Amino acid sequence: MKNVNIFIILKLVLLTQVKPIQRPLYVPMIENVYPKAFIENKSYSYDKVLIFDIDHTLYKFSDQLHEAEREGHKRVIEKYKNCNPESLYLDGFPIDFDKCYSTFNITPLEYELLKEVDYAKYIQRASSKLINYLSNCKYKKCCFTNGLKWRAQQILQKLEIEEYFDCVIVTSDEGEAPIMKPEEKAFLFVEGLLDVKPGQIYFFDDKLDNIVAAWERGWNGFLVGKDEDLVDLVIRSGLN
């Protein structure tokens, strides 16, 4: 009987413990909405955190992939031209996600799926240099992208680096006005999610507007040049 009671107590202890989060956790940017499990998990304490954009940062966006996305964009326009002729005159590519509703009356995710782009076809495994750095880096690592989970997950898996990130912060695939970089709301969301001070964040992105917005928040921001080696840039960033 005593052994049975001990077994029950141990089982209750295990059930009440915070379960480890399966890496990475994909988190959509929704103002003041944070995953409870992520916040409560005590293993997620941050000294410094590395945050990476994905496109043109973790990999170089090829001309072939750019053309495939453009053709996908044309397919969406062709599908909806009869119900909204103005869609033929869109001057933005890639399209701003808030235009998905105003132009096509579809969600950003529906827009991505209608493009029918096979990202795995255009992306190769990341370099051994990058994989080795990410796998051995002692700091927490996150991705911070204006893309959707559906897109980011395909790319990170094809690069074979998804497992090295603690979380991937993505654009919400719902809502008429999704939060995106370089809006201040996007950077505030990251700070709230990770519960860190701006000075603890080391942020790498290929777009100057995003880096400037990060600087304005007090982040350590580093612009990734077109031909820049990301690992070399991270090493030069001053991380101990």
From TrEMBL:
Q: Which Pfam families match?
A: Hydrolase
Keyword annotations for this protein, in alphabetical order, are: Signal
Q: Which Gene3D superfamilies match?
A: HAD superfamily/HAD-like
Q: Where are the transmembrane segments?
A: none
- Residues spanning the signal sequence: 1-20
Family matches, as PANTHER family: ALPHA-D-GLUCOSE 1-PHOSPHATE PHOSPHATASE, FLAVIN MONONUCLEOTIDE HYDROLASE 1, CHLOROPLATIC
Please state what the protein is called. Pyrimidine 5-nucleotidase
